[in-house]
Specification:
By secondary structure, this protein is α+β, with helices and mostly antiparallel strands. The chain folds into 3 domains: about 5-195; about 230-320; about 325-470, Heat Shock Protein 90. It has helices at about 5-75, 75-95, 105-125, 130-215, 230-280, 290-320, 330-340, 345-350, 365-385, 440-450; strands spanning about 325-330, 350-355, 360-365, 390-395, 400-405, 455-460, 465-470. Helix 1 packs antiparallel against helix 4 and helix 5 packs antiparallel against helix 6 (about 290-320). The longest helix has about 80 residues, at about 130-215. The protein starts with 5 loop residues before the first helix and ends in a 5-residue tail after the last strand.
Length: about 475
């Protein structure tokens, strides 16, 4: 089967297994069709029988109601209503007699008729309405016996239904025993075939999955080799070609980043140095307008150099963000260290940074997680006004740990919430008087957090922006 494609192999396996199970199913279907037909007929007969018994009980209630009303109101139409209900009850009994043919049932029908005749005789007695109490005393036991007969008929009809059901179940059990051996044998053979084909077909897919995982992790050093059906082998060759192309592109990108770092940073440093010399008066005194121009040149060249460095740092992190060096890290100490590294900045701006953290240790890449915390804190410092309070919270449970960063700034506009983590995207709400950032700080946060298998979200907050990162605990090796 080496020359067959995956689709052809899968189809052959399905056809073979289907043939086995289909044969057993066909045999079972033919054997049970007759039983199913009998079962449907029995269910229909039971429903009809139950409906007729229920109708007889309803007609009895109607007869009793009409009789009692007649005795109270002395209205001839009520006696006619009694006769109509009685006639309907007789028709219902005729239908029931065709099903309940036992002698006991026939005796019940005869007794029912005699009791109905007795009730009719009471209603036919002239002047009976003038002695209502006497008539009611005569009718009450009559209808009590009628209701008792109805209950007995209900029990007999239920026994008839049970006997019919038992007969159907007995035949069904007989058919089940006949086909059970065939079905079990077919299933056992089908399972063995499925396991064999599944192992043979899924093994190359596991190799493909592993190869794609290595490519996604930027691991281009191991060649891709896939065995199995013809089309999966072709897919393996395409993945090997892709691995080589990605390795080449990664090498080119690294070389480009290295070259652009030198080509951009060196001229920019010269521009900044020249602006500083002009500002210091090395080339002679400057007029006020010239001084302002030099200041603008120096500020913007510094901003441009910072953005170039941010871009280079983002490219470097994006290329190796998946390559983590996990080690046991005290997260509370790491958070305190990051805050202390930026102490001069937030103290200069008159801000307060409050840490609310419990003791927590996790297997993380501490260097990359420090970048995440530094970027979140820098973003909060940039948008918080003087005198504001920034709160950093660290919590953990059995599955993950969470770090929240809440600033005192203007917050994030609702229309910016979905794109706030996109590279180079800058929201509408900007810090007053601050230089616009590069828009990649939060992108770096997301890249590193996702590399740890976690998530980064913007939560709703009444004041300021509230960012939360959640990272699952890594399993120890």
């Amino acid at each position: 089967m080496r020359g067959l494609s995956f689709h052809q192999c899968l189809l052959a396996a399905f056809l073979l297994i289907t043939a086995l199970l289909g044969g057993a199913a066909a045999q079972a279907m033919f054997a049970l069709e007759h039983v199913a037909l009998q079962s449907r007929e029995a269910a229909q007969d039971a429903a009809n029988l139950s409906a007729q018994v229920q109708r007889l009980s309803e007609r009895t209630v109607a007869m009793e109601r009409s009789a009692r009303q007649f005795l109270v109101l002395d209205d001839a139409s009520l006696r006619e209503r009694f006769q109509a209900a009685w006639a309907d009850a007789k028709a219902t009994q005729a239908v029931l007699a065709g099903t309940l043919t036992e002698p006991a049932s026939r005796q019940l029908f005869a007794d029912w008729g005699r009791q109905a005749e007795a009730a009719w005789e009471v209603l036919q007695n002239p002047g009976i309405t003038r002695v209502r109490s006497t008539a009611l005393r005569r009718l009450t036991p009559v209808f009590a016996r009628l209701h008792g007969l109805n209950e007995t008929l209900t029990e007999q009809s239920q026994r008839a239904v049970d006997r019919r059901s038992d007969a159907v179940l007995a035949e069904l059990e007989q058919q089940r025993r006949l086909i059970s051996a065939l079905v079990l044998g077919a299933i056992a053979l089908a399972v063995l075939l499925a396991l064999g084909f599944g192992h043979w077909l899924l093994r190359p897919l596991a190799h493909v999955e592993a190869a794609i995982g290595r490519l996604g992790d930027n691991r281009f050093d191991e060649p891709v080799e896939v065995r199995g059906p013809a089309d999966l082998r072709r897919l393996g060759r395409q993945l090997e070609w892709l691995r080589q192309r990605l390795a080449t592109l990664e090498s080119d990108k690294t070389r480009f980043v290295r070259h652009i770092s030198h080509e951009l940073k060196t001229p920019m440093a010269s521009i900044r140095e020249g602006a500083a010399l002009l500002r210091d008066g090395v080339a002679g005194p400057l007029t006020p307008d010239q001084t302002e121009i030099v200041r603008i040149l120096g500020d913007n060249s510094a901003a441009l150099q910072g953005q170039i460095e941010d871009l280079l740092r983002y490219q470097t992190l994006a290329s190796n963000s998946q390559q983590l060096q996990r080690r046991a890290t005290d997260l509370k100490a790491l958070l305190a260290r990051v805050v202390d590294e930026q102490r001069l900045l937030w103290q200069t701006r008159g801000l307060q940074v409050r840490i609310d953290a419990a003791a927590c240790s996790a297997l993380v890449d501490d260097a990359k997680l420090a970048i995440v915390l530094a970027n979140l804190l820098a973003n909060a410092l940039r948008f918080s006004p003087p005198g504001g309070v920034i709160v950093l919270t660290l919590e953990q449970d059995d599955r993950k740990f969470c770090i929240d960063c809440v600033d005192a700034g203007p917050g994030v506009a609702a229309e910016d919430a979905e794109r706030i983590f996109d590279p180079f995207y800058q929201g509408r709400n900007q810090a007053p008087g601050a230089r616009r950032g590069s828009g990649i700080g939060l992108s770096i946060v997301r890249e590193i957090v996702q590399a740890h298998g976690g998530s980064c979200r913007l939560l709703a907050s009444e004041g300021g922006a509230h960012f939360r990162i959640e990272i699952p605990h890594a399993k120890t090796a």
